Amino acid sequence: GTSAAQTRSAALEEQLARDPGRFRVLTGDRPTGRLHLGHYFGTLHNRVRLQELGTEVFVLIADYQVLTDRDVADHLAEHVENLVLDYLAIGIDPARSTIFTHSAVPALNQLLLPFLSLVSVAELGRNPTVKDEIAHSRQSSVSGLMFTYPAHQAADILFCKADLVPVGQDQLPHLELTRTIARRFNDRYGNGTSVFPEPDALLSAAPLLLGTDGTKMSKSRGNAIALSAGADETARLIRGAKTDAERQISYDPVGRPEVSSLVLLAALCLDRDPRQLADEIGGAGAAGLKSTVIEAVNEYLAPIRARREQLAQDRGHIRRILREGNERAQAVAETTLDEVRSAMNSRY
Ligand code: ATP
Ligand code: MG
Asked: Hey, which family's this protein in (predicted)?
């Protein structure tokens, strides 16, 4: 569960502080829209921090995964370029980190076949995140891809033998499945050695930021505040966010999830303790809380937004970064696939 993963994340942070070069990171996003504050404080901030520590970072744009909960990937190329822009604007450096789309890396996708053989239909069907996504999906029936994408995600993570995955809380069941697949592959084919690591999730202080409707902030649920939104739009969205009727502001994530998620958002932008900040806002009510959040978010994002606008002038540069990232990822995937085929005795 989440609290075990938080304890584990704290232990991982200690190891990171001692030896950041020991880890290899993979994490990513679906190109379904622009990145938002949930991404930023849930995972993006950690990606940049790890890159700066000197850890090798792979950033995946999961374009095949768009098709899990819709029939057609609308505006795909545009979304992909927007993700790259968001990454660069927050500080991902393509000279040190590899940005790629998984559809451009055939050797990665080939891992899906042996991996699917290692999990049961019952295990796939139990996944709580997939169940939640099916409930929010626009489709009337569940596609085979929706059912199996967590195994595809295991290929995304294991193709580069990543052992650390900075993600939000919704990804914990998928990480568990990835660990299971790695372990079973090693047991069945490793011949006493371990071909794949069993990767850990790295949770941030905001593993589940809520959107303006009080459910998980998500690109495709119309409840998100995009990093690239304007200051006025940000203010309007935050003013409309769901809260509760109590005048006194407090930080109580279990009892008052909507109010507490707003307090946490402001606290993260201001680098403050959320409990202290809630005490200070005190009797100012939801309106006072929202004013604090709006100011904090807009100030925090101002330099990121300015950088993004500048980078958006050169689309050719964005496409070049992707081409280079895809090439690097393909080379890594081919090496791993060779190893997998040798282990499985299918290299003739
Ligand atoms: P979609 O609605 O299209 O699924 P999304 O907003 O859920 O979009 P993803 O691309 O599915 O975004 O997720 C990318 C990463 O961001 C994952 O690691 C996920 O855990 C993290 N993440 C997404 N939303 C949040 C959130 N509200 N709080 C914390 N982390 C989040
Ligand atoms: Mg999602």
From this structure: Belongs to the class-I aminoacyl-tRNA synthetase family.
Q: What is the mean pLDDT of the chain?
A: 97
Handedness of CA 297, 303, 306, 307 (dihedral sign): negative
- Does the domain at 229-311 match CATH 1.10.3720.10? Answer given as no
**Minimum CA distance residue for ligand 1 atom 21:** 168
pLDDT of residue 57: 98
**8 Å CB contact between 251 and 275:** yes
Q: Is 242 helix (H, G, I), strand (E, B) or coil?
A: coil
| Probe target for ligand 1 pocket from 2, 26, 29, with the most ligand atoms within 8 Å of CB | 29
Domain residue spans of the chain: 2-208+315-343, 229-311
Instruction: State which ligand 1 atom lies nearest to the alpha carbon of 62.
Output: 10
pLDDT for the residue 220: 85
Distance from Cα 345 to the centre of ligand 1, integer Å: 38
Pocket around ligand 1 at a 6 A CB cut-off = 27, 29-30, 32, 38-39, 42-43, 167-168, 170-171, 206-209, 216-221
- The pick from 130, 218, 260 for probing ligand 1's pocket by mutation, whose C-beta has the most ligand atoms within 8 angstroms, reads 218
Q: Which atom of ligand 1 is nearest to the CA of 208?
A: 28
Look up the pTM and report it: 0.96
Residues 6 or more apart in contact with residue 274 via CB below 8 angstroms: 251, 260, 263, 264, 267
pLDDT block averages, 10 residues each, the chain of length 348 = 92 97 97 97 98 98 96 94 98 98 98 98 97 89 96 98 97 98 97 96 97 95 96 98 96 97 98 98 97 98 98 97 98 98 92
CA of 286 to the centre of ligand 2 (A): 28
Residue from 2, 6, 9, 30 whose mutation best tests the ligand 1 pocket (most atoms within 8 A of CB): 30
CATH code assigned to 2-208+315-343:
3.40.50.620
Q: CA end-to-end span of the chain, whole Å?
A: 43
Written as one letter, the residue type at 299 is: E
- Confidence (pLDDT) at 292: 98
